[in-house]
Amino acid sequence: MSVRRLAKEQPANFTFNAKSEAEIAFWLGKYPETRKASAVIPLLWIAQKQEGWVSEPALRVVADRLEMPYIRVYEVVTFYTMYNLAPVGEHLIQVCGTTPCMLRGSDELIKVCKSRIGEAGTVSADGKFTWTEVECMGACANAPMFQLANADGDHYVEDLDGPKLEQILDDLAAGKQIKYGPHSDRTASEPHGTKVLTDPSLYDGSRAKKIKLPNTGKAEAKS
Ligand code: FES
């Protein structure tokens, strides 16, 4: 892993907006006052979701809010690669380059990203894209894939190749909604060309037997 440092250019200040404050209240409610530092990861994540990245002023605001030394928050934000330490484009494309994705063609995706967007971690000229290479995101059965982070949330885009990614980038640049999940003949991670679980009772819970919950006389739930 490369050394991660804060961006050279930083904004003068940072303030959580009302939406972020509501989310912070939720997370702080999970911990006793004396253990509120436990919320450091979600608070940094909220800061990132608000601004697209975690700036130094944001780091200090989080540390002050949680009564933590700045260095402790710095250690967290520079350790976890999920935090962006510099501004990113409107669409952040995180391409998985770990072995299963590599064997299934992630190099082709990275080549497209380089030619269409630029070097990893940079913002494209139109401000729309940033791409990075990341480690396994647990979707190996749908390799190769990337995670898309933008105003619509965080979504996996799977079963890709170079031409499919080119089309996806065209659509995103044009402001079109893209398909999340597999870009293939399957709906999830079932084997290609097969139809499995066609009977909804196999996955909707209707076949589960009723059981008595422990320590209750009456309530029943399905196993
Ligand atoms: S190796 Fe790419 S998601 Fe696991």
List the helices and strands and how they pair.
Elements: H1 18-28, H2 40-51, H3 56-66, H4 70-79, E1 91-96, H5 99-103, H6 106-116, E2 129-134, E3 146-150, E4 153-158, H7 162-173, E5 181-182, E6 210-212, E7 220-222
Parallel strand pairs: 1-2, 4-5
Antiparallel strand pairs: 1-3, 3-4, 6-7
Helix pairs in contact: 1-2, 2-3, 3-4, 6-7
Bound molecules: FE2/S2 (inorganic) cluster (FES).
FE2/S2 (inorganic) cluster (FES) binds next to helix 5.
Could you walk me through the main structural features you see in this protein, from its secondary elements to its overall organization?
The chain has 223 residues and is α/β, with parallel strands linked by helices. Among the domains are: 18-79, Arc Repressor Mutant, subunit A (Orthogonal Bundle), CATH 1.10.10; 91-182, 3-Layer(aba) Sandwich (Glutaredoxin), CATH 3.40.30. The chain has helices at residues 18-28, 40-51, 56-66, 70-79, 99-103, 106-116, 162-173, and strands at 91-96, 129-134, 146-150, 153-158, 181-182, 210-212, 220-222. The strands form two sheets. A five-stranded mixed β-sheet has the order 2-1-3-4-5, covered by helices on one side. The protein has a two-stranded antiparallel ribbon with strand order 6-7. Helix 1 (18-28) runs antiparallel to helix 2 (40-51), helix 2 (40-51) runs antiparallel to helix 3 and helix 3 (56-66) crosses helix 4 (70-79). It is flat and about 55 Å long. Bound molecules: FE2/S2 (inorganic) cluster (FES).
